[in-house]
Write a structure and sequence with these properties.
Structural class: mainly beta
Strand content: 35-45%
Number of strands: 22
Largest sheet: 7 strands, antiparallel
Order of helices and strands: EEEEEHEEHEEEEHEHEEEEEEEEEE
Shape: globular
Length: 375
Amino acid sequence: SKIQTTEMLDAKNLGRRNLIINGAMQIWQRGTTSSALTHNSNVYHSVDRWSAVTDQNDGSGTLTTTFSQSTDVPSTETFPYSLKAVVTNTSFTPSGTDNTALFSHSIETYNANPLGWGTAGAKQATLSYWIKSSVAGTGTLQIRLHDSNNVSGASDGNFYTKFTINQANTWEKKTHLIPANTTDGWRRNVSATAMQLYWFFASEQGTVSTQDAWFRLNNYGQRHSDMTLDFQTTGGTAYLTGCQLEVGEQATDFEHRSYGEELSLCQRYYYRAADGTSKTLGLGVNYQTSYMSGAVYFPVTMRATPTLDAASGTNYYEFIRNGAADFFNELLLGNRTTVNIGEIYNNTQISGTVGHGGFIRTDNAAVYVDFDAEL
């Protein structure tokens, strides 16, 4: 009686359903707290794969937003963390096109392909998540097909709807049915941003012309007609976790991936090779007397050739070779860097013997060495 045939199985949602990476907020390579952020159109801050739009370039005064890891999660769920955003308004008066999307997520074209948007086989999708806010009210949810103009030659495809915080300081699960889009899609064989999801908690822009249906527009941050949240004037605290975007018209239970798998998915876009003191980056060699070159092997193939973001300061690094060490201040990225290997070098603070090899190591608690291939 326990035997099932293949015909009896509903195989639509057996695994790998969630198109959002790090939806349970497990991975925090950049650290668990951001510094106070002011105006920035799209900034990655703390938790991996999640960014924010704090676009205040028209108003006057100062508005700051701080993001951090929180263990405040829905009591009925098993999420490890939530992403916490705290908005502080000390003197800011918004105007013009100012807007604030505390939570934003970008999905790569390759990963979005199961939706089939932009083709005759386009499928419906369901977005679900848990959200909490210190202020009740209605915000604006926008899905922008960021690469669709490269396919259709027209403006980007957009879908605007609303999310409502019914009760302040209470975790609530939200579900949105996203209609299939047969017109606007993305390039399926090029790595680019297929779509961006924005949760707007404030906007000074006008009401969007089309709601709860796809239309074309090259813009972000317009208002849903029911929007009442305004964190730019009132401030507030918001939390997000358990985010899932999946093919189909019904929200299924959140797909928990292992920590190791989630970390590998995140490292395609961002890899912290080292932080703190006495961390070995890799092997190096004196290419010339004053030129040391080395390599950092990435744990997974990165999305694109990354850029390097590495802390610099007096004697932040050392090259240990031939019974001695050269201390130097900064790392640079070589032009032979690929999606698999980062070439690092210093050619101003090294004094060694050509051909000698050694270890490249950090030598200060403030050091971080990051390779960035974010969308």
